[in-house]
Amino acid sequence: MTRLAPTELINELAGPLADWLPKQRWFAGKDREIRAVRPVRATELVGDADPGLVHAVLAVEQDGGGRTGAEDLYQVLVGRTQRLPEHLAGTEIGTVAGETCYSAVHDGDLGTTLLDLIAADRDVAGVRFRPEPDAQLYPGLRSRPAGVEQSNTSLIFGHRYILKLYRRLHPGPSRDLELHRALHRVGCQHIAAPLGSIDCELRGEPVVLGVLQEYLSNAVDGWAMANTSVRDLMAEGDLHADEVGGDFAAEAYRLGEAVAAVHEDLRRALGGEEGDRDRLDAAVDRMHRRLDRVLVAVPELAPYEPALRRAFDAVRSVPLPLRLQQIHGDLHLGQVMRTNTAWVLIDFEGEPAAEVAERSTLRSPLRDIAGMLRSIDYAAHQILVGDEVPHQLEVRAAEWTERNRRAFCDGYAAAGVDPREKATLLRALELDKAVYEVGYEHANRPEWLAVPLAAVARMTAGEECA
Amino acid sequence: MADDGRPDAALGLEGVPHTGEAVTPEGLMVEPSAEDFDHARPAPRHPEWYKEAVFYEVLVRAFADSNGDGIGDLRGLADKLDYLSWLGVDCLWLPPFYASPLRDGGYDISDYRAVLPEFGTVEDFVYLLDQAHRRNIRIITDLVLNHTSDAHPWFQASREDPDGPYGDFYVWSDTDQHYTDARIIFTDTETSNWTFDPVRGQFYWHRFFSHQPDLNYDNPAVQDAMLDVLRFWLDLGIDGFRLDAVPYLYEREGSNCENLPETHAFLKRCRKVVDDEYPGRVLLAEANQWPQDVVHYFGEPSTGGDECHMAFHFPLMPRIFMAVRRESRFPISEILAQTPPIPSGCTWGIFLRNHDELTLEMVTDEERDYMWAEYATDPRMKANIGIRRRLAPLLDNDRNQQELFTALLLSLPGSPVLYYGDEIGMGDNIWLGDRDGVRTPMQWTPDRNAGFSRCDPNRIYLPAISDPVYGFQSVNVEAQLNSSSSLLHWTRRMLQVRAKHPAFGLGTFVELGSSNPSVLAYQRRWITPDGNEDLVICVNNMSRFPQPVELDLSDHEGSIPVELTGEVPFPRIGQLPYLLTLPGHGFYWFSIIATESGEAP
């Protein structure tokens, strides 16, 4: 039989895709009507076999929703077959010209094609599959999709590799890939080694479609690790954080060492600079502006406003120079994985709320530390959310936070500079982060609002007394 | 010391064959020869038996007393072989039963060729060995290569006559300023590795107690003498040796005097004697060090190993305890990930408890503080740098945890070593001195002296445990034999299951990670010589709370996991992650049975 050419296929599939896209978790514009779906490019990766495989970038035009030029780019992989196997039934998109089209990321055999193309260093009609220079790849492994993800889809090959496929595409360089490459070049031990990439050009700009990395097959994320410890603590109640069996402090210490090592490696690989008074003032101004916005929405924050503003303004007079460099940018317990040998940092995409261009500006490493300290506080309090909480457990949670914050900072200090030496800046960054959390929780998870609010209250209480 | 200056005077072995009972005109001591005794029948042939064996450490003193003197003996142990055979153990490990002044639990040997009289005679040992081999049970014992007791006739001769044939058997020096980089091991009793001997007027070197002078392996005569000690017991039929304190055989200036190349060279000589003259016997190294250092005691990988067949994996044990307390698999996962591959002819020995304290040398200071805080709540529970407790009291007598720990011991890579009494959940007595708290009499019955001895209870070497929880009235073999739900019956069933699956002893180990840090899952896989696959998957919940786990078993899609203790088939492995739920401290062992072509029926 003769098949439709790939572009033709996607054109024909536009209707079913418009129905299918909003049901995908990674699709960003769920709340807006889709006006049109059209292929920006479509490439046949497997043509002469059943199932076939088509790679496509879609332009999805949606109702404005207040935005102008509301056209987003999405990457899809479409499998096409005469007979869809039963286990793939849930992945169907629609039928075109006698062929059933389906989401190919669920088809382990088609996944193999992607790995094989990377290993073979192939360029298929402008879609470039490249291994990293030092990567030794074993092709032929079947893939399986990783668990549910927010904005990407990842395929795992055996126990060796993971291929992260970006769904919504942003033309321009990928910070995640570039930082991984830079860290790998200097031999960083606390990242998953980058092994390959897929990219193409869109509208004259390069765009990264996917990144192949070493798969951390025996790893657990930091959030689950911390929760295991907190669970143990809360079940005891009468024991202090340093007394219960599930103590996390040793892990927090090692995590601090790992973060310090990554910061050091980033500095070695990509350099740094010294921040001046103007940069500092601009950062303080941004903190104030964020506070302004959140205060409007969350009146509960008002009692702490004077203390917060004093904490921010105190940064204006911290001694210079201030060390600036590339940092992780969005560090929290969910971005670190405990492997059998070390803590590993993942996802160097940067601060999700920031514009893409802004994400790669140099920042103080204290920003990452503040993020992790806030995350530790969240871990201690999250299982108390929503319940009438006995005072005793509140005390335990606070003890756990304090113990593990200290251990994290001790670990960081052992491998780098003690972040507590810059207490004024660290405190302001933490409070700024907490203010952001107050705004976020208020808008998205009101029952969690108490967690960052309590942190703001706690961190400003001492200052009030002083 | 006796006044007559005879080198064997300090032995107290009048009337039994012993070293130095006569001296040749050249000044050499006459030593007992294997030809003077009967030899045990050989064990059934099985060259790599140690890889599949379950070991059982039993203290002769503590197991059974045949003559009513209040002290366990070799004949008493022989009487209990039927019990051990029923339990399903494959090899007994006996700590030293040699002649000894017993100032270091028998590790201070005063005559390598004589049995401690209170345990019996060489003839009694041959009888025990013969009876054990009849039941397909092997026996190994400790051999201390590094040092002797100061009562050994060699040392007596060495200090009396510096120019005689034994003058150079020990490490003598005019000064105590040599080898100062060597650490002191027993820091709580010794201040130096040198002690002055007023008889010879020189210092002698000792890595352990001052009454245990180190042999001088730079002297070829010492090497030959010790190889002949090996041959003596191997000729009688013994199945191997646990070589005690092997890292310390040689001393070299400027080094820490551990793991020196000369030490490895001598171990290769020992191994060659075994391979050439006694194939099928094993050498087990006791080197309390990190696995990456211990691995050198297996010898050259390209030959499959040309030093010891086995070595203890010390750091694993405290980490099993730590993992369960932290409800996190990582203490175990990490140490296994750091354990290097070993030569093909070798295996690890792993254990939960033994006659020494729970050793904390192989953990960091911070971890040691943690373990002390968690497991040694009373200061008396701490000894040297370890914890002197038995398994059951360490685990608060929690049956679920005892089962989990034992399941881990029986399924992690290496040959498991059980400690006598732990199969019935025996307790300890922390009020007894030194390490005696975990060396009390085996509890056979609720009768006098726990059925261990007919003697007057005041005469017994250590009182049987008699507290209300672990006392012999409630915890004993007889009662547990009569109850099919007892820990004893459970342990026996687990040994039977293990014996059916060569993957446990021989198979590869691959951890199956999951996103739940409290669940430790791994795969053991072995291809039998006839090409069949034995594939076992073990899933362990380190948490006291029930846990779910999703395992990536996609390599086995279409296969059926069959739970090994009850032969219950579980749902077929499909495309999705395999979901299991485990009760608190629960575990599963599954055999993975491949179905035709992996297709659903």
TrEMBL record, chain A:
Indicate whether Transferase appears among the record's keywords: yes
**InterPro entries reported in the protein's UniProt record:** Kinase-like_dom_sf, Mak_N_cap
- Any idea which UniProt keywords this protein has? ATP-binding, Carbohydrate metabolism, Glycogen biosynthesis, Glycogen metabolism, Kinase, Nucleotide-binding, Transferase
GO biological process annotation, one example: glycogen biosynthetic process
Q: Which reaction does it catalyse?
A: D-maltose + ATP = alpha-maltose 1-phosphate + ADP + H(+)
Cite the EC number: 2.7.1.175
Q: Where is the Maltokinase N-terminal cap domain?
A: 20-107
Q: What class of enzyme is it?
A: transferase
Pathway(s): Glycan biosynthesis; glycogen biosynthesis
* GO-annotated molecular function: ATP binding; kinase activity
Q: Which Pfam families match?
A: Mak_N_cap
Q: Quaternary state and partners of this protein?
A: Monomer.
Task: Give the family this protein belongs to, as stated in its UniProt record.
Answer: Belongs to the aminoglycoside phosphotransferase family.
The molecule here is called Maltokinase
TrEMBL record, chain B:
Keyword Calcium attributed: yes
Q: Which GO terms describe its molecular function?
A: maltose alpha-D-glucosyltransferase activity; metal ion binding
A Pfam family that this protein carries is Alpha-amylase
Q: Does the keyword Isomerase apply?
A: yes
**Catalyzed reactions per annotation:** D-maltose = alpha,alpha-trehalose
Keywords from the UniProt entry: Calcium, Isomerase, Metal-binding
Tell me which EC number(s) this protein carries. 5.4.99.16
Q: Which InterPro entries match?
A: GH, GH13_cat_dom, Glyco_hydro_b, Malt_amylase-like_C, O16G_dom_2, TreS/a-amylase_N
Q: Which family does it belong to?
A: Belongs to the glycosyl hydrolase 13 family. TreS subfamily.
Q: Report residue spans for region: Disordered.
A: 1-23
| Organism name | Gandjariella thermophila
Mind listing the GO biological process terms from this record? carbohydrate metabolic process
Glycosyl hydrolase family 13 catalytic domain boundaries = 57-454
Task: Cite the SUPFAM superfamilies for this sequence.
Answer: (Trans)glycosidases, Glycosyl hydrolase domain
| Name of the molecule in the record | maltose alpha-D-glucosyltransferase
Top-level taxon of origin: Bacteria
